[in-house]
Fold this sequence. Notes:
The protein is an alpha/beta fold. The chain has a single domain (4-199), classed as Rossmann fold (3-Layer(aba) Sandwich), CATH 3.40.50.620. It is built from eight helices and six strands, in the order H-H-E-H-E-H-E-H-H-H-E-E-E-H. Its cofactor is [4Fe-4S] cluster. Residues 44-211 form the Phosphoadenosine phosphosulphate reductase domain.
Amino acid sequence: MTTTTDQAHLREIVALGERELGFDAPAEAVVRFAAEHFDVREVAVACSMADAVLPHLVVQDLPDVDVLFLETGYHFPQTHLTRDQVAKDLPVRIVDVMPELTVAEQDEKYGKDLFARDPAKCCQMRKMDPLKAALGGYKAWFTGVRREESPTRANAPLISFDEAHGLIKFNPVATWSFDELTDYAGEHGVPVNMLLGFGYPSIGCEPCTKPVAPGEDPRAGRWAGLSKTECGIHL
């Protein structure tokens, strides 16, 4: 966990990054900035395994970086296949971030299918709390947040101080469209979750993710039918 002194220094780096990168610097410039200020063991990449574009970008300057995969216990089989392909194809270290309870233990303690009755609590226990614990050993992390994904992400900065986790947050592909993402994956032969080709532009846990109709918000399939649009990590 970073100390108050550490956080003051990290905030100085954020201020520098805001000046140098602005609001729309290329993704590669964001990664280079991070590599100039941090050792590879000080940063992590969060990856949902919808695709491996973000890890592929980061390893160009920070090879063997830790890639955090939130193993909720509810993933699509295709997501696990993508995770395994990323581990095989890219020079990264996959870190499976596990919740405190297995799905069976959670069902026993809170009742079956908590995600349907209280999705916020389920996400808290299976994603947010485990991620917060995992990030405690780093000074910065990369996410794949993109501004076009939803209104809540429309103003996502390229670099910021993450108050919730006490470290720097980089969003290198914030300016990218979905087409730019898939074009990059195709050009560089990056592993992609096959569900992207079947109407799933945003992929989460299987029980809470549905296909999206043409023209719909890319995240409309997440927690479909509920008012919830974010797990809470990026709010």
